[in-house]
Amino acid sequence: MTDTSPPTWLSDRALIRVAGEDVRGFLQGLVTRDVNLVGPDAPQWAGLLSAQGKALFDFILWDDGDAILIDCETGARDSLVRRLSLYRLRRAIAIEPVEGGVHWSRDGDSGTPDPRLAALGRRWLGAADDRPVTGWREHRLRLGVTEGAAELGQDKILWLECNARELNGVSFDKGCFIGQENTARMHYRSKVNRRLLVVPIGEEGPRTRIRYPDLGLMVEHRRIDALDGAVLPDWIESD
Predict the structure, then answer these.
(1) Strand pairing partners for 98?
(2) N or C, where is the chain less crowded by C-beta within 10 Å?
């Protein structure tokens, strides 16, 4: 029978499973979001940072019973597995890629709202297929939401400059995580001087992260006093 349902598979996403001894406690000391908030219908967007508080990886954490599934960029999956394994030491924890797919729909009742912003649509995990969905990147960017190494960089941009505070990507009352000291200092002193912003496409400059000619958009790392022309959705707060 031919499948006539619309495609939903995000072909650029992959899964990692973290299982074993005190998995939540292990991740709690590493990632920016409170892992105890991850529930069956409550995925959480989080980052793994450098000691200076700069983004290395961003991902969504999903409940998987006694384990946690990490929904990450396909191209970053192996690097993220290696990075997390460095912190495992002698703990009885398995960190490994697993089969499966991440799915998205702009509307409907499937899955749960994206933990960053409900307007992004709904997201769920299932089997991967051969019918990738279209429209996700444009929808996300027109809402001003950035993600992934091409936009956030790796060890280049501070996590709060990635709009993590506004998009529910950081918990300030959960205890320590890698990069927490600088991240918390910026938060409490309101010292976020730059932001990642989506802007209409133009000439590439020193603060341009990536251009999307097919969408007429690009991502720039701008000072907060240079926001002219940027996509400024109501969820953005200017310091």
Answers:
(1) 15
(2) N
Q: Measure the N-to-C terminal CA separation of the chain; round to a whole number of Å.
A: 55
pLDDT digits (tens, 9 = 90+) for 54-84: 999 999 999 999 999 999 999 999 999 999 9
Sorting pLDDT into bands at 50, 70 and 90, what band is 237? low
Query: Which stretches of 121-233 are assigned E, i.e. beta strand?
Result: 122-126, 194-200, 208-212, 217-223
Paired with 71 in beta bridges are: 15, 60
Closest Cα to residue 235, out of 144, 142, 121?
144
The helix (run of H) or strand (run of E) holding residue 186 is helix 180-189
- Give the domain ranges of the chain: 13-191
Tell the CATH superfamily of the 13-191 domain.
Probable tRNA modification gtpase trme; domain 1 (3.30.1360.120)
Report how far residue 15's alpha carbon sits from residue 228's, in angstroms, rounded to the nearest whole number. Answer: 38
Do residues 92 and 100 make contact, with C-beta atoms less than 8 angstroms apart?
no
